Amino acid sequence: MVRRLWTYAWPYRGHLAAALGAMVLFGAASAGLAYLIKPIFDDVLPNRERVGFVAGAMLGCYLLKGVGSYGSTYLMTGIGQRVVRDVRNQLFRHVVGQSAGFFTTWTTGRLMSRVTNDVHQIQQAVSSTVGDLLRESLALVGYCALLFYIDAGLALVCLTGAPIVVYPLLRLGQRVRRTSRRSQEELEHLSHITAEAFTGHRIVKAFSAEAYEVGRFREASQRLFRINMKVTGAIAALPPLMELLGGVAVAAALWYGSREISASRLTSGEFASFIAALFMMYGPAKKLSRVNAGLQQAAAAGQRIFEMLDLHTEVVDRPHAKPLAPLGHSLALRDVGFSYDGIEGERILRDVSLMVGAGQMVAIVGLSGSGKTTLVNLLARFYDVTDGAVLLDGVDIRDGTLSSLRSQIAMVTQETILFDDTIAANIAYGNPAASAGAIEAAARTAHAHEFIVALPEGYATYVGERGQRLSGGQRQRIAIARALLTNAPILILDEATSSLDSESEGLVQDALARLLTNRTSFVIAHRLSTVRRADVIVVLDHGRIVEVGQHDELLKRDDGIYAKLYEMQIFDRVPPGKPMRAVDDREPAGSFGGVDGEAGES
Ligand SMILES: Nc1ncnc2c1ncn2[C@@H]1O[C@H](COP(=O)(O)OP(=O)(O)OP(=O)(O)O)[C@@H](O)[C@H]1O
Ligand SMILES: [Mg+2]
Description:
Blueprint: H1 2-9, H2 13-47, H3 51-96, H4 100-105, H5 108-150, H6 152-159, H7 162-199, H8 201-206, H9 210-236, H10 238-262, H11 268-280, H12 282-309, E1 330-338, E2 349-357, E3 361-366, H13 372-379, E4 387-392, E5 395-396, H14 402-406, E6 409-412, H15 423-427, H16 436-445, H17 449-454, H18 472-486, E7 490-494, H19 502-516, E8 520-524, H20 528-533, E9 536-541, E10 544-549, H21 551-556, H22 561-567, H23 581-584, H24 595-601
Parallel strand pairs: 3-8, 3-9, 6-7, 7-8
Antiparallel strand pairs: 1-2, 1-4, 4-5, 9-10
Helix pairs in contact: 2-3, 2-5, 2-11, 3-5, 5-6, 5-7, 5-11, 5-12, 6-10, 7-9, 7-10, 7-12, 10-11, 10-12, 16-18, 16-24, 18-19
This protein binds adenosine-5'-triphosphate (ATP) and magnesium ion.
């Protein structure tokens, strides 16, 4: 784990070398200070000799120690921050690149916790723990050297106790790692509860579930508190342990040292210097005792991050994937079968074969749960087919690159998703380089321009998280404008079932009609008006295509499923009082060819 973390620090080895230099300075100056006690006791105090020299040397040592301390802290923290920045960026890139299946198992709150909390733990470790480890070890080496220089025998006597603490230190370290991992898990859970309660705030209010959410949060919070206290318990045991060891060492020094002095093998100045060095060792030793705990905490967080980085997304470019050419003549499904649980799982789609010519519009209809959304998700490779293949001009889309496939597809999802940004930025989401004119043209075509200019800030209005500040119909029209602006040849549309008032229903229908013009489109249709426009209607039932044809033709089949669906009034009819203008007079092909052209007209 530590070795893997180390690979992130390796690019900054230059900084690390400089930090090490600063630490050596710090260690040497620290030992020098302890050594100066000897001339103070032996020369300065009894005989008033070398006062200026000793005072000057002391100042010099403090100065060097300060420079070393500042330099090493600054550089080590810098390395920690850089490592964390890199890990964080890599983690985010990795998570964003995961396939659709990943996001159905991992919740937003948990992912957010990994990207922020776990990464933060590592920063703590790299900046302070590794810094401490190096700096305090060097200081300790300096003091030790001084102890042996003054009196090797005395030093040996004092340091015999040191190995005794190593065992408890390691045991406590293991405990810290375990509890720290659990603490991060609890934190993740807390983050999950928070994210859910906040994003679902309307439902929380509507069902008066505040108390329930507060209770859930409090419970998780309490668990986090308990486990954090366990971590604290383990870490707080370390300094007293070190202090005890220090006490033993000083007692041994007094006992052995007094005998040495009376035998005149040691001056009292040397002894004072020795004791001073011993006391000064306490600081570094205390810090070092925590180093292991800190490293264990980082290892726990690192493990969680690496677990995530090692999750490979199911939908990836094949090794020799080539860019797919733009759709030329057909998009086809050949004997497609699909299961969310892989090869063994039960098939949600079975033996689906379908050939769609370029420029055609396919309406997909069927009861809820029949597999309509699943089918269109396969076209954009949100999931890969389990059996069969999806072919773009005869080429298996899995042999092409994901980006070349998805750049050909525009999507309007059932549930409109907008970002907390301006209206203009939301429309230009798939095409950030679009000019203001092009954005406005798309908005006009989508019948959104009128309401946008009526807003106080116009196109610069922020829509709020998930577009909360707009109405449902307004959101849909922004989503349509967004799809229009990408100008992709293939369109996938999961028609919203939400009923709008007849005014906005008409506008949305009209916008949809314009969007469909001149594209190869797959429309999951819930409105009769949409279904009637289709070149071909595909009826799905329990994951199989049971009927294919046009409206009138399918209606004529007496025992047909489509006829039954129609009879069940499963399709939303045209709202009264609003003629479906767009449905009946399709615009001539190519009228939407250039978004800019539309802007010119208006
Ligand atoms: N991520 C998923 N993991 C496992 N099963 C899923 C997943 N998504 C959908 N399913 C299952 O697949 C089946 C088909 O779902 P799908 O969303 O394709 O239906 P649909 O035809 O779009 O229905 P609706 O008209 O209600 O949107 C359902 O039985 C559903 O439970
Ligand atoms: Mg669906």
